[in-house]
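#lab-general

N.A. 3:47 PM
ok so I finally got the sequence cleaned up, no stray characters, all 338 residues accounted for. can someone with queue access submit it? mine expired

B.Y. 3:52 PM
send it over

N.A. 3:53 PM
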Amino acid sequence: STPQHLSVRPGVFPDILANGQTYASTTQSATINFFSSVNSIEMVNNLRKQRLTFAPTAYANVEHIGMESLLSAGKSIDGDMKYTQLDIGGGMRVRYTLRQFYAQVHLPLSIRPTILSGSSHSISARTRLYFKPSASFNWRITDNWTSNGNIGWSDMPSNWQFLYTAYVLRNHSSLSRYEGGFYGTKELDGRIKLDYKEILSQVFAWIEFAGNRTSTELTYGTHINEQGYSEMQMVRQPNHNTSLQLQACLRKDFDWKELSLEICGGAARGKNQILRQSTMNKYQSKRFSASLKFLMKPCGWVDLDYITHWGRYDSQSEDGLNVRFNTNWSNNLNINTT
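B.Y. 4:20 PM
back already:
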């Protein structure tokens, strides 16, 4: 359990908590009790047929959260909630192997009953099926070149915090309350990487490309009211966020003084939607980075480590009115003795 207590004087948010009347103090007490159990079973001897391997799996998990909340603002507002979710399912792992190449596919299917009780909501229960397929591969192309990657799709249920509908005073200027509802999040995530290594010449390099897209059924944002307080708002509107990243590194090692030099560079691009002051804004962002790492052992008892990093972040709204630029450059030198 994690009990927390907050007291603010004079009382805050009188328009919401006290019908517009001023009052002496606001007090928030909250205790969260958490219990979970994770259980799974998998065959020791997998089923094989030529180059295919089949591994059936099954699992049964349970998560229980009990929250006891009391908000005092001239009057007491009770916000207790009990949340229990079962996750029961199974799946099949299929692996294909051919010489220096293998690929694996995982196909899990689960049923998740969710039960709610307490005074902070009007939702009682819900049961849904969830499917989370994923695939990965590893390929040793030659003695010097290898490649690997993975991709996965998930459909996740609402976090228990989004089902809690009572007011919570987070700090002296933040009062939040969720409307409550079983709104899920869908995510598609993937990456692919190419590695190069030459042991004799001690040269190593890699390049990686990654992408991510998330979709939610709700959009949350903040609103600053006339009193200067921040209010969290929710709009029932699909929200899509997309990001693409590319990164590459080159490293050269030397026997002399265990010297190692590494240079890296990267670029990323993203699109997201943000709710600000009751208005949905679409943003595009770009990020560039470069770094240089220097490792050396001048003598048997001294290790030298130097890293310099440069980065630039650009963000612009779709209408071109909000533009932000941020550039940073950091240097870090560590000298360790043993």
